[in-house]
Amino acid sequence: MNRRHFLHAALGSAGLALASNPLWAAINHGGHAGHASGSPAMPLKMAPENISLLPVNALPAGQPHAILFRLPNLSSKPAVVAATITAEPYEAELIPGKKTVVWAYNRSIPGPLIEAFEGDTVEIRFVNKLTQASTVHWHGMPVPADQDGNPQDAVPAGGERLYRFTLPVGSAGTYWYHPHPHGDTSEQVYRGLAGLFIVRAKNDVLAHLPEQHLVISDLRLASDASIPDNNMNDWMNGREGQFALVNGQREPVITVGEAQRWRIWNACSARYLRLAILGRKIILAGSDGGLLERAQEVSELLLAPGERAEWIVAGPAGAVSLMALAYDRSKMGKVAPEQDIRLASIQFSQDSAAKLPERLRTLPPRIKPVAKKRVVFSEIMSMEGGQHSMQFLVNGKSYDMQRVDLTSRLGDTELWEIVNDSHMDHPFHIHGTQFEVLDTTLKGKTTPAPWRAQKDTFNLKPYQSARILITQKHLGLRMYHCHILEHEGQGMMGQVLVK
């Protein structure tokens, strides 16, 4: 039976009727909360599908765009950035007159912005005041494997550790950090744990432009302003909240005078952002791993969960809207139609124009690959024993913390083919390095990448494949996975050992 037909028939036309069935929570998803594949599956936390939610207008809108909290550098040594980040639950007043228990770094949502330059040594003390084990994963950054917050290196509840790494020349870009304990990543992120990291180049050709930072996330609040657990629909499709936020605000007002450089993060667990500025073109200057070689003018830009971008924003005076336009990522089951979302109002206070160099960056020449690898994302539906279950797999296997799936040699450039053999979009992410997309293939048509870019996260449409060039420059174990966090946590993750 076709997967979509199976789900529709199994769940019924009245909605996701199994949402309150505790048996569904026993999905064999290949381990949870640090358990390896093959060991008994831990029950998934499960909220009812029909839980009462606050209306979107319960969160005030229209405030001035908030500036991110910058983490102070406590080091007195040159070229050293030292600080402490603490993950802990606390009560915040997100809705006027109501208290919400959130989990946050340094009681800040979004988490603090860390800034460093290429060549700096970073020393971050992490204190875990959660009741769960956690890690800090430096998403997209070229850090040693034993410093990258892998699931195997979880910091226990009440524990702490020091992350220490040096940022190489050429690593300037827009990054972020978030938890990565196996099985609990999605909950820790949707309750608020995510922070930002900018690595700056000392010879940045865009350093003259003022910056705006836009961290786009979403939030779900029940009618009592609490953050509910995932429901069955979330475990299938990935969690999306009713509130789409920019720097923790609903529909803020962003003021633009002279031309600006915007850094944009998709920090959502599963929401795709088809971004557009209504009535204006977008000047795309950078992606995950830093600047493009040349700026590109586009009408819209799709950011999958985990992806980042840099824009140059300028234009005639006036008011326009920043939108997340509807995007169909082929969700499973009975779901509401996708809708456009207004993320922010942009007020251009004066006419402005962007003056950019013809070349923003020179990427190194492509190196001929010496090895090839193939990674396939897939899904399996089952009604074994009368119980509905689902698996998210990589190369036909569910994640096992004790298993090495692939082996690579340090410094080798490899050609990887990434395949989405499923009905649903999945964003591919790999730890510890950037890659370059060469081309994509869909329905027999191969399309070259529109421009050269350094990426660590790339979306694949249903039955689409991509060829990427990738080089690992640190020894150790690296994760690669779908960056829809609920899919990652249910098994859509593998491990490559760099030797």
Automatic annotation (TrEMBL):
Look up and give the membrane topology term.
Lipid-anchor
Q: What is its main location?
A: membrane
Query: What UniProt keywords apply to this chain's record, in alphabetical order?
Result: Metal-binding, Oxidoreductase, Signal
Heme as a keyword of this entry, yes or no, is no
Q: Which residues form the signal peptide?
A: 1-25
Top-rank taxon, per record = Bacteria
Q: Where in the cell is it found?
A: Cell outer membrane
Where is each Plastocyanin-like domain found? 95-203, 386-499
Q: Which Pfam families match?
A: Cu-oxidase_2, Cu-oxidase_3
Q: What PANTHER family has UniProt attached to this entry?
A: BILIRUBIN OXIDASE, CUPREDOXIN SUPERFAMILY PROTEIN
Give the protein's recorded name: Multicopper oxidase domain-containing protein
What organism does this protein naturally occur in?
A: Iodobacter violaceini
Q: What is the lineage of its organism?
A: Bacteria, Pseudomonadati, Pseudomonadota, Betaproteobacteria, Neisseriales
